[in-house]
Design goal:
alpha+beta, 3 helices
Length: 149
């Protein structure tokens, strides 16, 4: 009886369990996970760069809008007065140059000295993925002040 158990233990120890195919499944699983992480990372970088582009256009449009002033003399001193129409025309001209993906949402002057511009765009992923939304609305607001010294 003991001899039969020993021979059975030796045969299972030398042969080992049947692992054939399980390494392939693990490799495929890790490959799918790695590809998903690469796709999400690439789309996240694209979204970040798109937001920075919208921020830059808003900054430039606010700076251009602050140049839409009219000089007036008040108490013998020159003053730069901004109007909503002047801010909008200057900002609109710059946004038109920036490209079709960015649109001018608003361009106003809250106090007659500052130009506040809001631009909007929609980001679309560069690589299709079920983990990333198909379109994200991006907005940026910038304010620039004008001064005459």
């Amino acid at each position: 009886m003991k001899r039969a158990l020993r021979s059975q233990n030796r045969s299972t120890a030398t042969k080992g369990p049947d692992d054939e195919g399980s390494v392939l499944l693990l490799t495929l699983g890790y490959a799918v996970l790695a590809i998903a992480l690469i796709v999400v990372g690439a789309n996240a970088a694209s979204l970040y760069l798109a937001q920075k582009r919208v921020d830059s256009v808003a900054d430039a449009a606010a700076l251009a809008g602050a140049d839409g002033f009219a000089l007036v003399l008040q108490s013998g001193e020159p003053r730069a007065i901004l109007t909503n129409e002047g801010v909008r025309s200057q900002a609109s001209a710059l946004v038109d140059i920036a490209g079709s993906e960015v649109s001018l949402a608003s361009a106003t002057t809250p106090d007659g000295v500052s130009a506040r511009v809001t631009v909007a765009a929609t980001w679309h992923p560069i690589l299709f993925s079920v983990f990333v939304p198909s379109g994200v609305a991006l907005n940026a607001t910038a304010t620039s002040r004008t001064a005459v010294d």
